[in-house]
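haha ok so turns out i had the wrong file open the whole time. this is the CORRECT one, sorry everyone. sequence first:
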Amino acid sequence: MKRILIIFILLTAFLSCKKEESKESTKLQITKANDINVNSIDTTKKIIEQQVLHGYAIKEAGLDMQSDYNYKKEDYDVIKKISIDILKSYNYKVLNNENFQNKLSRIFNFKITEKDINFLVEFACPLENIKYQLDINYTVSNNNPLFIDSKNNIILEALFTPQLINYKTDYPDIYNKEEKIEKKKSINGEPVDIIKWKEIPNLNEQRKKNVQTLVARNMYLFNDSRAHYKWLIANDEIFMESLVTTFGYYDDKELVKWLVDKTGFANQNIDQVNKIIYNKKCDRKIVFDQQLLNILVEDEVKATQFYEFVRYDYIDWLLSDKSNTELTFSQKAEIIARIHSFIYKHAKDYRTVDFMGKFAEYNDSDNKYSKEFKLKNYYNIPEFEKQWKQAKIDGDGISLPGEE
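then structure:
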């Protein structure tokens, strides 16, 4: 009986110790989690204060104002965290890694690299002479870079914190410190004015627009939100144009149609038309916009404008020396082939004799286009080989070389 009592006492003591250990372990885990949250909050506040107290920009007498802030990876990490929190508050649905990568590939023709920072440049090619430092390891062009967060599967811009959060209401102590900073300072012996963030006109409106842009881009691109598509068309035109003209994204038929309507062919603006007829990559490869032509067929008025523009203006531009700096002969030949084939198939009034036949007669007497078309296997355009051979006969009465 005594032995049983001793065992019972020992077992009770053992379980009691285990329970206390469990409590201590739980307390330790909570403490660690709290430490992480506190550290994150402290870092965010530190960066916000650092940016605000540094000022928006400096201005030397007689010169434009400019920022002299050294934007570092820590700054980017904070703006990334803020961007993620904003998207969560708008119920952004995070894609899994495979679906996110598929979207990036289809829309931007981009594959995430092993670097921990990936970015896209919204304009055709980075401007080599305009750069800013993210930190010592990352130098990126500043012509509208879009950063890719491949862990949280979003895109964002490397903004300053006052451009996304209202520090006046969220961090009043920082705002009060900003009130007290000097309005002037000296740089290399030269006096400069400090432009404070609170002095920026319409900063609240800018901030609201930045938040809406962040949300709308991610919701449209990765959550297929048509409501946000409409907002972007009305408020973020340059970005929406760049999806087609820079990145060569033609899958969204409504987007391409919007750009066609916006550009128009009646104005005969070669530069504007080129932006939607083909997409030229920084490696000088071109992607021809077949989707554009397919959409044109649906509207007889726009199609007629396009046919007339091509017939009397665009082909002449392609054949002139003016286009040589923009396109190589091979690139021009491909565009000519695709447009001619399209018009031959769809424009009842411009069959081979009237359009493709005359081109063959006046521009292919030496068979340079015939040889190029054949070399490129007629670009695998359905019926184009047959169309071109007939055009040669209708135009100058001469068959292709080797097929007499």
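The first helix runs from residue 2 to 54.
again sry for the mixup
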